[in-house]
Structures are given as structure tokens and as C-alpha cells.
Specification:
Shape: elongated
Strand content: 15-25%
Mean pLDDT: 95
Largest sheet: 7 strands, parallel
Oligomer: single chain
Strand order of the largest sheet: 8-7-6-9-10-11-12
Radius of gyration: 21 Å
Number of strands: 12
Amino acid sequence: MSETQRIAVGPSRDAEVEAVLRRAGAEIGDAESADALVWLDSNPATFPQRLAPSVRWVQLPSAGIEAWFGADRLDAERVWTTAAGAYADAVAEHALALLLAGVHRLPDCIRARSWERAAIDPLVGTIRSKLVAIVGAGGIGRALIVQLRALGADVIAVTRSGTPVEGAVRTLPIDRASEVWALADHVVIAAPATPETLHLVGRTELEQMKETAWLVNIARGSLIDTEALTAALAAGSIAGAALDVTDPEPLPDGHPLWDEPRAIITPHIANPRSMLREALLRRIEDNATRFLGGRPLLATVDLVHGY
């Protein structure tokens, strides 16, 4: 594009964000006359009820946007982009840490507070040469594939379309996800939260999983039926579950999962606030450069599918 484009920042001015926008080649404008808007508040309630017709692109700060759909804030009059993928490496690393902690029985060792190894030793495993299913192989899933392959694991990916994912030994469309539960040695949930993925993992899926399998969730708590998972863990039908997200969230005091020895729970810290800012600034600059150059933007929202 030949003429300079104006990009506004909201809900208030932000010197760092404006600096990366200028570095990309934009002018800083106001929301009433700008060509684009970078919105930094993840709460949809603070978003303007009306946008100027000149705004052709809106950058949102979060990766998951189910709240924005729920608040009916998105429209088809402009392009919307999220931060999906911007935080992928950090979240994938946390997913790997949860899986390794479970497979290597680190919580058991911590709770034991003893050098006696007879009870734990037979349970310790490895992910080398194991098949890990990643349900929802988007940005996080693809980053995790690289990490898993480096440790000698194979990956079966599940995506909406089933288009082959680089690094996966096999890719299945979401309507064939039922095939992975019995096949995989371990399962990682990384799919977006939509009405279609509500309780993607329930009693039937848990019953099909191997007794030695770990289930890891770094997506949204609603993708797993908490009641069914609690029962499966209590029965020992799977080896364990490692959850960075829960349903409900936060997990209430006294919930049985807190006392479940087969559960590892972290308080939604796969994407720590201390690392959010830097990753978001990179995404804003990258998308601003693309917008100004008339190139496709990263992480555009699919209004039909809800993410």
C-alpha cells in the first residue's frame, strides 16, 4: 500500500505498542478515523460497541476468543486476528513438562519423601518410541511436535481438516478423533474451545485409553468432562491426567481432583504473564507489517467455526 496507514491502540495509549507500530511503518491514529485497531484488553466488555467504518483490521490480545464470541463482539465487516500461535512455544514446553512429569512419576517421588524406590520404580516410563496424540495440532501442537520428536516420540495429529501436519506420522480430521484414544500411548489436548469441542473427552473416550496413558490438557477445561475424568482417575483406568486448565476454573477448594494422586494440576500458567508482553509485541509488529504491506495476516478469526 502506498499511503501511510493509521493504526489506533486501545483501550488507552501504550508507548511500547505504538513504538513497534511505528517501526512497522504505521502512523498512530485515533479509533474514530484509523484504518486498524490494536486492542490490548482481553475483556470483551471494555471493547467499543461501535467501530468506525474505516477500521478494516482489529488485533486482539488473547489466543482463545470464546469470550468474544459469547459477547457477540465480532463482526464480518472487518478482519479480526488473535494472538493464537504467538505463545505457542511456551505453552508447548509446559505441555511437555506436564507429560514428562507424569510419565516419570515426579509427583509420586515428591509425595513419597523417601529413598525407597520399590513402589515407584516399576511405574516410571519414557516417551521415547511412544505414540503421542495431539488433538488440536495448531500452533501449539506444531511446536510440541518438534519437542516430542527431539525426545524420540512419534506423533499422531488431529486437526479440523485432516490436512497432513509436518512432523506427524499421521494426521486425522476431527471427525475421526475417536480412532486415537485406544491407539495413542498418551494424549495432549490443544484444541480451541467451541460448542463442537465441549466435553471432547468424556467417559467413552477415557474408557478407550490405555491404562498406562497420561492425558494432558493445556487448551481449555471445557474440552474434558471433569466428572468423567475424576471417576476414571479414581478407578485407575488411566495412568493420570496433567491439567493446566480445569472446568470449573479456578478449581474450587475441596474438589476431589486436588486430592487425586494421579492428577497433576498447575494454575493456568502454561502461558505465564511474565512472558505474554514480549510475545504479543512481536505478533503486533508482525501483523502490522503484513497489514501495511497488503499481505495475509496471522491468526485470522474464522467466524463460522468460532476460532
